[in-house]
Amino acid sequence: MILYATFEIMTGIIIGYVSLAVGWMVGKAMMKGSDGVGGRRYQLAAALLTYAAVSLAAVPVLIHYAREHQRPTQSQRQNLEAEQHQLESESGQTPEPRPRQQKNIGPVFGRLVLFGLASPFIEVMGNPFGGLIGLLILFIGIRIAVRMTAGHPAEVFGPFDASVQPSH
Q1: Are 59 and 116 in contact (CB under 8 A)?
Q2: How far is CA 84 from CA 46, 71, 139, 147, 161, in A?
Q3: How far apart are CA 142 and CA 44, in angstroms?
Q4: What CA–CA distance (Å, rounded) separates 165 from 17?
Q5: Which of these, 115, 135, 114, 116, lies nearest to 124 by C-alpha position?
Q6: Based on the number of CB atoms within 10 Å of its own CB, is 134 exposed (0-12), middle (13-18) or buried (19 or more)?
Q7: What is the DSSP letter of 162?
Q8: How many CA atoms, within 13 angstroms, populate the side-chain half-sphere of residue 123?
Q9: What is the rounded distance in angstroms from the CA atom of residue 72 to the CA atom of residue 77?
Q10: For residue 95, what pLDDT is reported?
Q11: Please, what sign has the CA dihedral across residues 144, 148, 149, 154?
Q12: I want to staple 145 with a disulfide (CB 3.0 to 4.6 A). Which of 3, 4, 27, 161 is the partner?
């Protein structure tokens, strides 16, 4: 997720090919973490982790662009400071700051996660051609992770005759 979001924020380019790298990284990490053991449960975990990493990358990108567009410009800050200074001089006293209200971030966090998980499909609604290509590349990235975490058939050697002694 960090790779995908950082690439998009730094370059301003939304490119689905990073999904392929994410799928490869997830598959590699799953196999390293499982000591080379693969199988269905690892494939399922790799598919879910790849999808979550790529789709949830939309959340830090959204936060970045929201903060970038929310910041007041230098002239707006100067206007706010001038208004505050005028209020202070008119009243002769410094206004008391309002107490900060505690914000419950749980619902906001939940909405951001849901937005992130739905973001590949939201992209299709906004840009059908590009969104479908992005989904296709995402699913190829998931397929890479799934193939890398496939189980290997167990090799059975034997049966061996325990009564035969090796010759010298």
Answers
A1: yes
A2: 54, 18, 54, 62, 94
A3: 10
A4: 59
A5: 135
A6: buried
A7: T
A8: 22
A9: 6
A10: 56
A11: positive
A12: 27
Question: What confidence score (pLDDT) does residue 70 get?
Answer: 72
How far is 5 from 129, CA to CA, in rounded Å?
Answer: 22
Question: What amino acid is encoded at 35 in this protein?
Answer: D
Buried/exposed code over 23-41 (b: 16+ C-beta within 10 A; e: otherwise): bebbbeebbeeeeeebeee
Looking at residue 27, its pLDDT comes to 96
Tokens of 92: 């002769």
pLDDT one digit per residue (tens) for the chain, 168 residues: 888 888 888 887 777 788 899 999 999 999 999 988 889 999 999 999 999 999 998 899 888 888 877 766 666 667 777 777 666 666 666 556 666 667 788 888 899 899 999 999 998 998 899 889 989 999 999 999 999 999 877 788 878 777 777 776
Q: How many residues does the chain have?
A: 168
Cβ atoms 144, 27 nearer than 8 A: yes
* Domain definitions of the chain by residue range: 2-90+121-148
